[in-house]
Design a protein that fits this description.
The chain is mainly alpha-helical. It has helices spanning 3-21, 24-44, 59-76, 79-89, 91-96, 102-131, 138-167, 170-186, 199-205, 209-221, 227-258.
Length: 259
Amino acid sequence: MSSQSLAQTWYMTQRQLMQILRQPVFVVISLIQPVIWLFLFGNLFRKVVELGGFGTTSYLDYLIPGIVVMSALGSSMWAGMGTLEEIERGTLNRFLTTPVSRNALMNANVVQTGISTALQSLVIILLGRAAGAAYPGGAVGLFVLVTASILLGTIFGALSNALGMLVRQRESIIGINTFLLLPLTFLSSSFMAPSQMPSWMSRVADFNPVNWAMVAGRSALNGNPDWGLVLGRGAALLALAAVAVWLSTRTFRSYQKSV
């Protein structure tokens, strides 16, 4: 990518970040659900670790990576709504008449999603620490967790953008996201250790990218990380993110030809 394309991508990213800053209420709202998971779920199920298989004696320690990843998933899946809004307002079409890089138009959304996911993850980590969670993996483990959540956010943010350009209907995006969100969440180790899940669910979770991010983050935060596991899941997320961004770009080119 050329320096000019990078500069244009950053300019378009700043534009999207400013839109978020002008409506800070949405930032606060996006943190309400993680807080509920943290303080209500964390206390409600705190004794479940006595069943074994969690790798820790604190359910809160087990839950934090799950909350970080689920928050990244939940926020990124709605990225297509922003793309659809720009299509409806004609903003995207006006940008198509300018010399701005077409890749910059799409990559800016991905970068903005990554930045938002990173900041959201850091807030959840700090809230978890305030609630008493421990992070034996230290700064390196936390970095891996945040990176995994960013990659997951990139995957579903790019796919959501592609979906927005394909269906161009809010109801369709809402319906598809609602249909996918709960299965992706519960067919993972977000709340329960794999050893305590039904065998068929644990097998399905092995193919769930949401679970890949959780496994990578939890392993890195462990006092004795399995770096082979971390790198394996991280590489899978990176590869899937590259495919999702490519698909989003291809979809944008198809949209461009249709206008």
